[in-house]
Structure formats: structure tokens, C-alpha cells
Amino acid sequence: MAGAGTLSADAPSQWASHRVWIGMHRFGARRASDGRCRAAIAAGRRPTVRPPPALQASVGESFSSEKRRASEAPAAEEGSGDGEDQGNVRRTSGSMASSSGSEVGLHKSAMALARRGRVGPALRMLYQGIDRYPDNHFFLTSAAVLEGRRGRVARARRLFERAHALKPDSAPTLQAWALLESQNHKVSQAVRLLKMAAAADASHAPVFQLWALLEAQRNNVSGARRLFKKGAEADPKHVPNLHAWASLEMDNGNRQLARKLLERGLKVDPHHAPSCNSLATMEWQAGNYAAARNIFQSGLKSSRRDSDILHCWAMLELRRQNLKVARELFDKTLKLNPKHIHTLVSWGSMEARSGNVERAQELYKKAAQVSPRNTFVQHSLAQFYQQQGDTERAKEIWQRLVELEPGCGVAWHALGMLCVASGDLAEARALYQKGMAVRDPKAALLNCEGLAELELFYGNAGAACRVFRTAAQNYKVSARFLRMWAAAEKRLSNPEEVSRLLEASARRDPQEYRTWLKWALHERGRQNHDIAERCFRRAMEVAPGSPHAYHAYATMKYSLGDTAAAREAFAAGLETAARSGPLITEYALMEWTEGNISKARELFSLGAELRPYLAHPPLLDAWSRLEAQEGNLELSRELEAKYWSILNKGRSEAASTSIVEVVDMGNAGEDNFDGVDSEEGL
């Protein structure tokens, strides 16, 4: 599951999207201090937002009509909701002595349904509780939370108003209401509610945590820090508050304080998965891989909670191209939790990129069976179909997503890219603009990227840079975003700005090898060979299993006349990435040029034995030319015929496949460095 923003590998969303689990789902919850409260300002649906009613407004509508409307709504499938919480409703400790056993049992049953993603049946049960026990504000609060999650904002507000009228000093109710308002861009209203919650119960740490996150979203870092500190003073053992505070400090460069806060939280709860993942990721980003693995190992306790830790660990290994280790960790995760959505999708994405299409399809289909209405799963499945050439099927899924959930920014972006592929650029622009309006900052940023790319397609590099610049002022941008911006600046022939942006991208995520590689390629083009070498070496260090850095570095060294260094780099790349056709081809060509014909033949033969989906036609063409030069005309003709057979087959398949490569949010790579350069134009 997603962790805390930049501190977590499988959750690239910004730390301000951190979830704050509200402590009110069990009767009488007063203090959510059991370590299960998480940050929850992340995006889901984007309902039509109406002006908030007065806090003390009375509600005239009867709750029998609320119950009737809920019963008419279709039940949500398991795992419905946004792609992160998957329909889970977490509870905190507490009890209400005045509640009867039947009240407690009914509420508990409703919450159990909600945690399984069956929101419709849960709501029907909660409305029964509202009718039977009209003075119990917990039924009202829980129903309001679920209605808000379904995008029924006005109805949720009415329920919160009634709950607040019954129990004006309930901090969890006010906090949950504030969360609803913050998710619907009513930040000032949310802050007013949080002030009331803090006044009602100054010991309720999650109130200060959510308030701090809202202040940070408004770029009030000092105010956020002050509120996190208040939360820690209110409840020193509230680990989620310490974790969110650490994320703030990490994002502002205070790594030492972030580390202290994470270590402090892990002393309270050594198995708190988000804190464990964040601290391990910090070590990983610093290149301390053994220390990171030790932290992951110490966080495991042979329970279902281990699945989140194992998934994060697997994603970090995947980023280093340690596919075998990642595969083993994914397998362990699913043995613990066969319904771990993010593992099913991430593993499927890895296998698809590795060419294991059948295995990838199995994993994607399993994810869809586990959570058929999950936005994240459906989007990932659509991406898979699109990548396999089934564009119509992918388009159907994305269109259904935006109909069911207009706030699904990734679907707007995908549809926009399909319009670009079909030449309908005006419609693509309109779709991207719809996606830019969603409340999920990561999805909105993705659509900003799409619009900027569209401007580049039109030849408006200046307009594209303005889009990037505006987005950077409004959102906390990713390393990938900065790389794309750098590509736009390159179109404007601003090499210094390109270097600045790539350096910023490397600072944002020091373990992202694409940044180091693209920075190296850029500096190589500027003849800044010392900087290029440093960046190439960093790329090889952070992703030793990727062939691209070895390939580019070796060709640079050879062009500079250092054949020994080039040969060493090619050999190292071949050892760690033996399935790279382009690397083998360049290595063989160098040996041919150096007169080492037998070594060149050995390499060409190795490359020709690659599986069909890894075949690199230029290798056969080069080998054919070598044999012709050496007088082996019959073998040369055989190789040439095989070359044209593969090439023509590829052209035929390409003609039936969309040219669009849909960006996978958090799982897809930018691994297309054939010819060393990438799709981002560097």
C-alpha cells in the first residue's frame, strides 16, 4: 500500500496526500492512538461541490428518506473506492458504555462490510441504525464517511451536521467532516472544523495531523511543523503523526530530523509498515542497500501486515533491476495476502515489460477479480490491453471509468493520449483540461504533462514550458516531471536550463537511474565528459541490472579513444544484462572494428539466440555484413533473410498497434533507451 510520499517507493504521490485514518469507526472512539491512523487527503472521486451549509444548520430531511435512497443504490463491489484504500475502513479502539449490545453489534457489522469494500450494504445497515437509535451519533458519522467516499458530498454533509448537533464535542466527527471538506477543496471550512475539534479534545492527535497536512498543502511549512509538534505532545505514541511529520521534514531536506522521527515511531511500534518502509527507503536512496534490507527484515513479524513491507521492498529491488529478487518478494507478499492489489498489478507490470505476457495477464486478471470496481486496477488493466495492441478494449475501460468516476484523472489522461494517436488534438486538449481539474494532485499533474506534450507536438515549446512552470508552482512535482520539462527546454535550446532541471530531478529522487542516464547523455552531448562520466557511473550504481547506462557509457569511452574502458563497460553490462540486443550489437561492432573477428562472431551468435520478443534485427544485419566482408556469402544471405523476416513481421504488428504509450502511474518504466536516447527527447 501507499506509504508516505517521497519516503515510500511504491507511493510516488506527494507526502501531503498521506492518509489520515479517522478514529471514529468503533463506538466511543476518542483517541486514535493505536498506530492505525493514516493520512487520507488523497484523491478519490470528484463530485459536484456545493457551498457548505452552516455548521449548526438543522436538517429537515427525514432519515427514512436517506435510508430509502441508500437502499436504492447498488452495492459496491469488494475493493471499490479509490485505488489506494481499496474500500478499507479502519477502526480505532474505544467503546461506549451507554450503548446496548445490539447497537454495538449492528455498527460493528456495518463497518466489517465497509472494510471489505461492500459500501452499499454497509450504508443500508447504518441507516437502519440511524432509524433505530436516532440519538447515536456514531451511526451518523460512519454513514457520512461512507457517503463521502461514494462522492455524495451533500448527503454526507447533512449526516455530519446531524451528528455534530447530537454530539458537538466529538473530535472524531469534526475531524472526519474536515477531511470531507478538504477533499472537496473547502480548505478554510476544513480548518474551521479542525479548530473546533482541537478545542473539543486537545488530546486527539489525528486532528493536529490532518490540520498540519492541510497547512503544508498551503505551503505553510512552519505552521505544519508546529501542528505536528502539537500532535506529538498530545499523544507521543501516535506513530502516524510522527510518520507524517517525518515526511514533511524529508521533503524539506531535513533528513536528520526525519530519520529521528521515524526511529522514534518505530520504537513505539517496530512493525509500523509505513514508518518501516520510509526509513528503509531513506537508506536505499542514500545507497545503503544492506541497511535498508535489514530495516525491512526487522519490520516483518510473520503477519498479514508484512505484505505492505514486502511490497515496498520488492518495488525498490525492481528499481535496481533486480528482477529475480523482486519476483521472489512479490511471491512472498501474495502468499501472505493473495488479494494485495498493488502487488498483483506491480508484478503484472514487471512481467509484461519483461515479455512474459501470459503471466502478466494472469496477474492483472486476478487483480480485477479481487477488486472489479477498483479504479487503480481497471486503469492498470486498460494499460495492459493497450500495450498489447487491444486499443478498443482499453478505451472501453477508460470511458467506463470516467463515466463512473469523473475524478479519475488517469483515465482522462489515457483517453487524451488515444485522441493524440488518432489525430484528434482538439479533443485531446479538452480531455487533458478535464484531467487537470481533478482533486488528485498526482493525476492532475499527469494531465499537465499531457497538455505540455501536446504543445510540443504543435511545435509550441515555449507554451509547453509555461505549462510545466505553472504546474511546478502549484504542485510538488516528481523527478519524472522535471525530466519531461528538461526535454521541453532542450527544444528551446536552453542547455543550461536542461542541466539545472536534470540536476533537480536527481536531487528529487537520487535512486532514479533514468535521471542519471539522461543527465549523462545531455552532458555527453555538450562535451562535458567528466560530468557525463559521473552521471553514467551513478546510473550503473543505482540500476546495475539495466543495460542502457553500460551501453551509452561504453560508446562514449570508445569515441574518446579509451578502448579498454569501453570493453570493460560492455563486459560488465553483458554480465548483468545478457538479454540486451542493442548492447550486444554495439559490443560486437566495436570488436569487429578493432579486428577481433572471432570475438565479434561470438557476440553476434549470443545475440541471435535471444528469445523472439527480445530479438534485435540490426544485430543480424551487422552480422550479415561481417560475414559478407569475410567471404562467407551463404551465411551472410541466410542472416540477411532472417533480418528482413523479423523486420517485416515487426512492421506488420506495428501497423495494427496504437502508437501511444500510456504512462503507467507508479509502475511503468521509461525503459525505452534503444539507440541510447529515450522518448523524452534527451
UniProtKB/TrEMBL annotation:
Chain intervals with Low complexity compositional bias: 93-102
Stored PANTHER family: PROTEIN HIGH CHLOROPHYLL FLUORESCENT 107
Ranges of the TPR repeats in the UniProt entry: 341-374, 375-408
Keyword terms of this UniProt record: TPR repeat
Pfam families with a match to the protein in the record: TPR_16, TPR_19
Protein name stated in the entry: PsbB mRNA maturation factor Mbb1, chloroplastic
Keyword Zinc-finger on entry: no
UniProt region (Disordered), positions on chain: 42-104
Keyword Ubl conjugation in record: no
InterPro entries for this protein: HAT, Mbb1-like, TPR-like_helical_dom_sf, TPR_rpt
GO molecular function: mRNA binding; single-stranded RNA binding
Signal peptide: none
GO annotation, biological process: mRNA processing; regulation of translation
